[in-house]
Amino acid sequence: MSPFPASPSPLPALRTLCLALGLALGANAWAADPATAAPAPAASRAPAATPSAPAPAKAASKEGRDTASKTTPVESLPTNSGSAMAEKIRAALSGTAIVSKKMTVTVEDNPKPPPRTATPTPPAARTLATQRYQQARAAAVAGHAAAPAAGDKAHGGEAHWAYEGDTGPQAWGKLKPDFNTCAIGKRQSPINIENGNTLQGPAEPVQFAYTPSNGTVVNNGHTIQVDVQGENTITVRGSTYRLLQFHFHTPSEEQINSKRFPMVAHLVHKNNEGQLAVVAVLLDEGAASPFIDKVWTYMPLDANDRVRMPQGLLNLAELLPTDQRYYQFMGSLTTPPCSEGVLWMVMKQPVTISRGQYRLFTQLYPNNARPVQAVNGRVVREAL
What we know:
This protein is of the alpha+beta class. The protein has helices at about 10-25, 85-95, 125-145, 150-155, 170-175, 180-185, 290-295, 355-365, and strands at about 70, 95-100, 190-195, 200, 205-210, 215-220, 225-230, 235, 240-250, 255, 265-270, 275-285, 305-310, 325-330, 340-345, 350-355, 380-384.
């Protein structure tokens, strides 16, 4: 026998539950119902119906016992407290059928706000931003590729050509319109000079006027070059040419009777009319050259680096052979843009450099020589 009296209906139990919820959540005006009593255990209570309740909504159990479902009117909840919590419970129970003898009511006082989502970028804005990025990147790449190496202007070219690979001599004429002469020119340099095909006879001597000068050694990315400051000139064919710079190639670009020398020095001069004259001094292996030692001492190791030589240290007269007879012909620059109309004088007698001096240069530039070009019927004078 249960110690608690049986409740005539589920309604008092519901009201007891609501009272407990109100007290727990801070409601202060719930009224106690005199008819409320503690419910009996489920096994001792019998289902009952109130006169105001509608017909049972559901009756089914394995044991054959019927459980009547009753609808609790929302208006039966107390309203004298003015509690917001009571209003929420009343709204939650509106139109709700109470099934069986127990019901759980969940009320969220402070529901969590929906998660924030980033406002999507309009497709048009994304497209514009992508286009601007691609344009800026393309401009940066183009600017980097177009930057010339130091000294390239004097040497006659730009940084993107090379001596091998896809940008080697066979492709120079296609790299840009200004280099077209490298491919179609008929008076290109260097050439192979055959003694049997030269115009032999007396020829005017080249008048060299070289004095101690200042110089800056440049690693221009293609060779070691020395920019010369001072009054250094040659006079030939009735015109005076001022020395601008000299640089080196290995092996020698010029061939004599199909023979190449280990290296060659090209001394580039220019007259007042803008015409160029180049003196080529062939370098063969032998005794060390004091002049080459002076230049190599100030050799820069990185491309585009420049090193100034001490004042008065540079004297090109120390590089010239004692026998100053030459081969003379009209040719071109041996580097892009391969401009023609250049007067060439190749010294017949080579000067010597040591194996160590040669090795030092080739560690930086093991091969920076353009292949020989067709003579195309040009006259080559051999001074006797």
